[in-house]
From TrEMBL:
Similarity remark: Belongs to the DNAJC11 family.
Residue ranges constituting the J domain according to the UniProt record: 14-82
Protein name: DnaJ homolog subfamily C member 11
Gene3D superfamilies: DnaJ domain
Organism: Megalops atlanticus (Tarpon)
Length: 547
């Protein structure tokens, strides 16, 4: 049953929006809204056969919404599954005896079972392609070696190394997973490869173990073991030809690590990592053979839709000193592009470009020079930025915009019949409201109360850069005036597309509600988001006499 219902997105707010009540509405609030709409749509109030038929349809829809939300069990099912959940046979005999909390627990159990079935079909592929580029001839050229050779006047750029790795996971049971991985590498004409198989078992909620077998042309048979165990809520141990202790959560956002590794490259490493919503900081210190170093890095996270991050780090040890700085940004729904400049002694200057596409990683380290040349640092910093801005303006933005329009068009086509039906229902509701609205306006005018002069709902174009786009709005003056009671209009946080007399004029696009109203003889105006609650009149909505 869960599998049948969980695959599609379900709009759970239709009934709440139709009755214009909060999702936490009490029985009294539901009853008051239901009675008011019954008085508006009752078929016996209309003599015209066509209006009577249309009123009966709307009356039945309101009655259905009320019957679902007034019953705790039906309401719990609707909140989880939507309207489709109410159509499934079996709830009336199986779930009727359960409380809303038990129904939610049942849903979570069914969801887990469905996830376990899906688990059997997943391989979770991951891969990485790294291409090393030697561009030192651009900045650090041996002129005497090339001046007499044909084509010696042009810098030579070479690919000097490449690495490809791929892995897949095959869940055997809910606790056992097999991992198959392989890699191929080549550097200056010499290459090699390896293949590994690992079996991982979750032993309990606190630990797991892994056994690994491998072989390659550059090494003999490989056998390894890895163990993980939570000792306390703040302390865990990992063993893998070494041992790592970690004190979890020194505070809410900080973790500390202590690692000891033995073998041909024995070392002890301690590090502190602090990760917050806006930043990421790491400090590490390692003492070992042959490498000892100290490293500090900082990353700032911009709170924008592209998830832009800038970062910098300093690493110093027996091997020399390296300073790195760079940035990364989300360029599409599943892709993240990053660039890092590395300046080191004696390593020289390098530019590292990385593209993450879903679970695949493409890495391009470009070695520019073995010396610290200002020109290499300048071009490594400015070049990628200029290229990115050009590609974003000429390729990425037009592509994303076209893709979004294509997706919206497909969504509109698939929902065309449903939108047409809702539009017809809204137009019918407006016709049935006319008499009630006339009486409400007369009552409000007699006490200089709340009069809705104009109301529009949909997509408004207010940005000059988007003037080429067409506004998509509908007139909702009558439906909103019909909701006025005692010189007040209260709308809940549900999408307003479900209100009586409303429909969605621009599926999948951002919508707003614009109101021009009069209260106590004074003009007021407000622009409200689609899912924002709204209460009028308000002093802050007043329009100055000069305006």
């Amino acid at each position: 049953m869960a599998a049948a219902l969980g695959e599609d997105e379900i709009d759970n707010d239709d009934y709440y929006s139709l009755l214009n009540v909060r999702r936490e509405a009490t029985q009294e609030e539901l009853k008051a809204s239901y009675r008011r709409l019954c008085m508006l749509y009752h078929p016996d109030k209309h003599r015209d056969p066509e209006l009577k038929r249309q009123a009966e349809q709307l009356f039945n829809l309101v009655h259905q919404a009320y019957e679902v939300l007034r019953d705790p069990q039906s309401r719990a099912i609707y909140d989880i599954y939507g309207r489709r959940g109410l159509e499934v046979e079996g709830w009336e005999v199986v779930e009727r005896k359960k409380t809303p909390a038990e129904i939610r627990e049942e849903f979570e159990r069914l969801q887990r079972e469905r996830d376990e079935r899906r688990l059997q079909q997943r391989t979770n592929p991951k891969g990485m392609i790294s291409v090393g580029v030697d561009a030192t001839d651009l900045f650090d050229r041996y002129e005497e070696d090339y001046e007499d050779m044909p084509g010696g006047g042009f810098p030579q750029i070479e690919i000097n190394k490449m690495h490809i790795s791929q892995s897949i996971e095959a869940p055997l049971t809910t606790k056992d997973t097999a991992v198959l991985s392989g890699s191929l590498s080549t550097h200056n004409g010499n290459g090699g490869g390896s293949i590994n198989v690992a079996l991982r078992r979750v032993t309990s909620a606190k630990g797991w173990g892994e056994v690994e077998f491998g072989a390659g042309d550059t090494q003999g048979p490989l056998f390894g073991m890895k163990l993980f165990r939570n000792v306390t809520p703040r302390f865990f141990v990992t063993a893998q030809c070494g041992m790592q202790f970690s004190s979890r959560h020194l505070d809410k956002n900080t973790m500390g690590y202590l690692q000891w590794r033995w073998g041909t490259q024995s070392a002890m490493n301690t590090s502190i990592v602090r990760d917050t919503k806006t930043s990421h900081f790491t400090f590490a210190l390692q003492l070992g053979i042959p490498h000892s170093f100290m490293m500090m890095s900082y990353q700032y996270k911009f709170q924008d839709e592209d998830q832009t991050k800038i970062k910098g780090s300093v690493k110093s040890g027996f091997f020399g000193t390296v300073v790195e700085y760079g940035a990364e940004r989300k360029i599409s729904r599943h892709s993240v592009l990053g660039a890092t400049v590395s300046i080191g002694v004696p390593q020289g200057v390098s530019l590292k470009i990385k593209l993450n596409r879903a679970s695949q990683t493409y890495f391009f380290p470009i070695h520019l020079t073995d010396q610290l040349l200002p020109s290499a640092v300048f071009y490594a910093t400015v070049g990628p930025l200029v290229v990115y801005l050009a590609i974003q303006r000429l390729i990425i933005i037009p592509y994303v915009r076209a893709q979004k329009e294509q997706d919206l068009e497909k969504q509109r086509e698939s929902l065309a019949s449903d939108i047409a039906r809702k539009k017809q229902e809204a137009e019918t509701a407006v016709l049935l409201m006319q008499e009630s609205v006339r009486r409400i306006i007369e009552a409000e005018e007699s006490k200089t109360g709340l009069i809705i002069l104009n109301a529009w709902y949909g997509k408004f174009v207010t940005d000059n850069s988007r003037r080429h786009e067409r506004a998509k709005v509908i007139d909702v003056t009558v439906p909103l005036q019909c909701l006025v009671k005692d010189s007040k209009l209260i709308l809940t946080e549900a999408s307003k597309a479900g209100l009586p007399g409303f429909y969605d004029p621009c599926v999948g696009e951002e919508k707003s509600l614009k109101l021009l109203y009069q209260f106590r003889g004074v003009m007021h105006q407000v622009l409200s988001g689609d899912t924002e609650p709204l209460r009028i009149p308000k002093q802050s909505h007043r329009i100055d006499a000069e305006t």
